[in-house]
Amino acid sequence: MDSLLKKRNILITGVRNKWSIAWGIAEAVHKAGGNIILTGQTEREAAEIHKLSETLNSPCSSYVCDITSDTGIRNLFEEIRDKYGELHGMVHAIAHAKAEDLKGDFIDTSREGFAHALEVSAFSLIALSAEARKIMPEGGCILTLTYMGSEKVFRDYKVMGVAKAALETSVYYLAADLGKEGVRINAISAGPVKTMAARGISNFNTILDTVRERAPLGRNVSQEDIGNTAVYLLSDLSSAVTGEILHVDSGFNKMGM
Ligand code: NAP
What is the distance in A from the centroid of ligand 1 to the CA of 95? Predict the structure, then answer.
């Protein structure tokens, strides 16, 4: 496990704080020997993330990237190419919906709110992948984070469920485009984890309790559970896996009655 990602440059987006799923992935990638490159949405966040990375033995580079800006995305990958030469893996762990679209009924989702959620949470994967592939000359692995609210109705997830469905289908189409270049792309469908983004979902504690009560493993998932699966998907252990949505949810998605 210690050397699975040795000498691999892995870009990890979506670290907000130490509770972020992306931070759990960063810790696992670091443990597996990978060089971590982090991004934050603003200068302030990039600085905070850099500080957080100092808790690892070797602090890593952190860059600014707001994925709603094409120029910002292009600049990010130019900076990474200049400093690291090439990229071996990328983690997309970004999602956002407007607060008003996570309240009330789904049917009241605004045109603007729908476009915002889909752009930030799904299109961003396409935009980042299009730049990442250019600095993956030997192939690579891309990973994104999704949630079961794409498959079934979770009443409080609303427009994010639709955004995650678009994200998952984007994984299939990107896998078809990128396979010939040796670039694999997969998604982890994670069980609920208490993060900053999760705070925007009403009744989140009830979701956590339900998973604990009904999942085959009888517990919620940890950042470590997700991080370890991310290492598998970013490493050669998953060399023939692409276009896959892998549930890391204690088996919750398999339960009916
Ligand atoms: P988080 O710590 O709040 O991370 C979400 C990240 O997305 C934040 O760093 C956030 O930055 C970033 N982001 C939002 N808009 C952005 C933009 N325009 N440009 C750049 N970054 C932007 O929450 P998380 O739960 O770990 O979320 C990570 C991923 O896991 C998301 O895709 C989420 O849907 C997915 N996921 C979460 C759960 C869960 O239960 N927590 C379950 C399954 C899947 P700001 O804070 O600055 O907005």
Answer: 5
pLDDT score for 94: 98
Q: From 69, 145, 224, 245, give the residue whose CB has the most ligand 1 atoms within 8 Å, as the site to mutate.
A: 145
Mean pLDDT of the chain: 96
Q: Which atom of ligand 1 is nearest to the CA of 67?
A: 19
115-162 confidence digits (pLDDT tens): 999 999 999 999 999 999 999 999 999 999 999 999 999 999 999 999
- Alpha carbons within 13 A on the beta-carbon side of 238: 25
**Per-residue 3-state assignment (H helix, E strand, C coil) for 128-193:** HHHHHHHHCCCCEEEEEEECHHHCCCCCCCCHHHHHHHHHHHHHHHHHHHHHHHCEEEEEEEECCC
d(CA 59, CA 37) in angstroms, rounded, equals: 10
User: In what helix (H) or strand (E) does residue 237 lie, and over which residues does it extend?
Assistant: none
β-partners of residue 190 are 248
Domain boundaries, the chain: 9-249
**Is 47's pLDDT higher than 80?**
yes
- 3-class secondary structure, 65: coil
157 tagged catalytic: yes
Check if 232 is active-site: no
CATH topology for 9-249 is Rossmann fold (3.40.50)
257 C-alpha vs ligand 1 centroid, how far in Å?
31
CA 193 to ligand 1: nearest atom: 40
